Amino acid sequence: MNGLSTVLIVVGLFLVGGIISFVKQQMPKSLIVLLSFGAAMCLVAGVLRLEVWN
User: Fold this and answer.
1) Which residue ranges run through the membrane (predicted)?
2) More exposed terminus of the chain, fewer Cβ within 10 Å: N or C?
3) How many domains are there within the chain?
C-alpha cells in the first residue's frame, strides 16, 4: 500500500462520513449525490491503486 492509495481511501472514507452527516441534516439531495459520487471515485481509485492487483 503506497501513500497515494492510502490518501485516496482515507479521503473517500471522510467523504462517506460527510454523506452520513448531510443526510442527518436533511441537506439537498443533489449535494448528497455529488458527495456520494466523489466518495465513490476516491474509494475506487484508492483500491485500484493497491499493489495487489498487479
Assistant:
1) 6-23, 30-48
2) C
3) 1
